[in-house]
Sequence to fold (647 residues):
Amino acid sequence: MAHLVIESLTKIYERGKVRALTDVSFEVERGEFLVLIGLSGSGKSTLLRCVNRLVEPTTGRVVLDGVDVTRLSPRALRRTRRKIGMVFQQFNLVKRSSVLANVLTGRLGYVPTWRALLGRFPKEDLERARRALSRVGLLEKMYARADELSGGQQQRVGIARALMQEPELLLADEPVSALDPATSHSIMQYLEQMNREDGVTVLASLHFLSLARRYGTRIIALKDGRIVFDGPPGAIDNAKFKEIYGEDAEEVEVR
Amino acid sequence: MSGEGLPVLGRLRRAFTLGLLVPAADALVLALLWFVGSLFFGFLLHGREVYFAGPWWLPLLVIVEGALLWAAWGRSPGMVLAGVVLRGSARGRFLYWALSHLGPVGAGLALLDREGRLPGERVGGVEFVEGRPTHRPWYRTSVGWAAALGMALALGAAVGTLQIDLQALLTKAPATVKYWQQVLRPNTSLLTLGIQLLIETFFMALMATLFAAPVAAALSFLAARNLTRGWIGRPVYLLVRLAGSITRSVDAVLWAIIFGVWVGMGSFAGSLALWVHSIVDLLKLYADQLESIDPGPVEAVTATGASRLEVIRYAVIPQIVNPYLSFTLYRWDINVRMATVVGLVGGGGIGFRLGGALTDFNFSNASMYMILVIVLVWAIDYLSARLRAKLA
Ligand SMILES: Nc1ncnc2c1ncn2[C@@H]1O[C@H](COP(=O)(O)OP(=O)(O)OP(=O)(O)O)[C@@H](O)[C@H]1O
Ligand SMILES: [Mg+2]
Fold:
C-alpha cells in the first residue's frame, strides 16, 4: 500500500476565488524523495499544506497510511499531524524563544497538554532535543535566541524541530529558497539523510530544477494547479522543461 | 444686550431656533443612532469598524429628513431642548415641515463644491465607501469658503455672547497679581498631606493598571480576528470588539462621574473609572498587536500536532509578551496623569483637593498640589519610557 495517496484533490480559495489546485492525483511510496516543481503560484505550497490540512482541501482525499486525513476529527488530526514533520521557506521559528524551546515544540503532539502549558517537558524529550540539535550541529546554540542565528542555522533548527516529531512523512515547502547555494546543499543533505537513514518519506517543493534532479527520486511538476509531469528526474528533457516553466525559461544551475 | 420685547428680533430668534437649531439637534441625535447602528451592523457584516458602507448621501438624507419629520410630527429631542411645543393643525405641521427644509438645504447648498458634491467623504473618521476627497487648496473650494464663512459667523456669535471685554483684558491684569503671588508661594505646610494624597493618586493609577492588564489580556484573545474563527469565535469577536469600541468612546472623566454616583465619590470611584477605561484601551492595543503577529510560527507549531492552547502558549504568547508589557507601562503612565484629572471631578486623590483649591481661589494651595503632580507625572513618564526602551 502506498504511503500517501492524493485523490483528485481540488482547492479553491474562497478569497479571490482562486483555483489553486485542480484534480490532482498521485501516490507516494514509503521512502520516496518526491520533489514538487513549478512556477510561482502553480500550487506547490497549497498542495503540501493540504496534506496536513493547514489548508482545508475543497474536494478530494488525502490518504496517509490508509487513513483519510480529510475526514479526521480535530483530535485525530492532531495525532496524525505529529507523524508529519514540516519545514518552511521562512523557517517559521518563534524568534523570541530559545532554540531549545523551538525544538521542543516538535514534541507538543506527544506531551500531555497540562505539561506543555507549564513548560514541563519530560526528561526524555530534553534528551531527544539534545540529540536532534547535535545531529544538525547546533548543540552549542541550544540556549541562544532563535533570531540570533543565521538563516541556515535557523533552518537547521527547523529540521531539528521536525526530527523531534519522529516523523514518517516530511513536508518541505521551499526549504532552501531563502538560502545561498552552499547552505542550500547542506540543508538538502540533512533532508536526504532523514530520507535515507530514517526512512522518512519526503515531499519537498524546490525552485531549482538542478536541486530537484540532484536530490529527488521522483519529480512532480505543477502548472496552474494541475500535474504536467510525473516521473524520474532524468525524464525531464528540454521540451518538458519548457512546458513546465514556459517558452522563455532558461535552466539555472545550483552547484 | 437682549432681544426680548423687540418683535423683529424675537421672530428672528424663533425662526433661527425652529429653522436651524431644532433640526440640527434632532439630526445630531439621529446621526448618533445611525452611528451606533451602522457600527453594529458594520461589525456584523465586515468585522471591523466600518461606520457605513453605501452611498454617502443615503445616511445624510435619512438623518436630515428624519429629523425634520420628527420635529414636525413627533416630540423630538430638539423640540424638548428648545422648549417649544408645536401645536396646531395638520396643515400647520405640514407647513413647518416644508419650511424647515430651508435651513438644512441652504446649509447643504452652501457646502456644495464645484462638482456639486457635498463634503463628507471622511467626516470625523467616518468611512464612506464611495466618493473621493477633493485635492485642492481650501480657498479654491466652495467648501473651504463655506467653512471660512461659518467660522467667521461663529466667531462673531462668540464675541457677542461671551461678553468679550478687551478693555478688561488689557487694563485689569494687575488684579491677577495677588494670585500670581500666591502661585509663587506654594503652601509648603501642605507638603505631608500633599505627598499622602500623591501616594493615593499613584496607587489609584497603579491598581487600575494592574487590575486592568490581566482582564484586557484575557479578553484580547477573543478580540483578535486571526484567533477567533468559526461559528462561535466570530460572534464572540464581534461582540467583544463592539462592546470595547462603545465603552472606549466614553471618556474616563465620564466614568469617574458615573462611578461617583454609583459607589460614592472618592478614590475608589476614581480607580474604577481608570480601571474601566484602561481595560478597553489596553484591549484594543493588545488585540491589534495579536492581529499583527507573524503567522508563520503559529502555522509551524500547529503542524506539529499541537492543540490550540499549546499553539497559543508556544507560538503566540512569546510574540506578544514584550509588546503587552510595553503597552501596559504606557497605560500606567497615562493613568498617573489621568488619575489627577479624574480626581478633579470627584475621583479622590490629589486631583480632588486640587479642584477644591482652585474653586476656592486658593492658589497657594493649588500651586503646592500642582508642583507635586508635576513631579510625579514627570518621574513616571521618565521611568515608563526607560522601561519601555528596555523592552523594545
Ligand atoms: N490564502 C490564500 N488565499 C487566496 N489565494 C491564495 C492563498 N494562498 C495561495 N493563494 C493562491 O493560490 C495559488 C497557488 O498558490 P501557492 O502558494 O500554492 O503557489 P506556489 O506554487 O507555492 O507558489 P510560490 O512558488 O510563489 O510559493 C496562487 O494563485 C495564489 O495566489
Ligand atoms: Mg509556495
Summary: The first strand of chain A starts at residue 4 and ends at 13. Strands of chain A lie at 4-13, 18-28, 33-37, 59-64, 67-68, 84-87, 169-173, 201-205, 218-223, 226-231.
